[in-house]
Amino acid sequence: MNPEQKDTDCIFCKIVNGEVPTELLYQDEDVVVFRDINPLTPVHLLVVTRKHIPSLAHMSDEDTALVGKMTRVANQVAKEQGIADSGYRVTINSGADSGQIVPHLHMHLMGGRHLRWGH
């Protein structure tokens, strides 16, 4: 599939396009942010690209600015959620062995408690 196309079976594509309702904590022309349905921390948000890119490994050179924007948005939302000063974790899983469940590029923004490595 061309990454520019929407994946009709992708849950994140459906959320991004409004086909599956969820509260968007942030949205612009490139990125949306919403709560993870299985949170591992008190604040566990997903920063998701509107463009369907299956994983970080599928990113092209033209997507470099998009990943940078995701990071900037994660920082902004961390401030809005009150976790920026105490600290937060941003994680991108790429591929099945990393634990990536949904094949659509996204970041996990986690915080709200002390995090140890591996947790």
Written account of the structure:
There is one protein chain. By secondary structure, this protein is of the alpha+beta class. The protein has one domain (11-111): HIT-like (HIT family, subunit A). It is 19% helix and 22% strand. Strands 1-2-3-5-4 form a five-stranded antiparallel β-sheet, covered by helices on one side. The N and C termini lie far apart (34 Å). 22% of the residues are buried.
Number of strand elements: 5
* Unreliable residue stretches: 1-5
Number of helical regions: 2
CATH class: Alpha Beta
Gross morphology is: globular
Q: How is the largest sheet built, in terms of strand order?
A: 1-2-3-5-4
Q: What is the strand content?
A: 15-25%
Helix content percent band: 10-25%
Mean pLDDT: 92
Helix-and-strand structural type: alpha+beta
Number of domains: 1
CATH architecture term: 2-Layer Sandwich
- Under CATH, the homologous superfamily reads HIT-like
Query: Gyration radius, to the nearest Å?
Result: 14 Å
Largest sheet: 5 strands, antiparallel
CATH topology: HIT family, subunit A
Q: For the terminal residues, how far apart are their CA atoms?
A: 34 Å
- What string gives the helices and strands in order? HEEEHEE
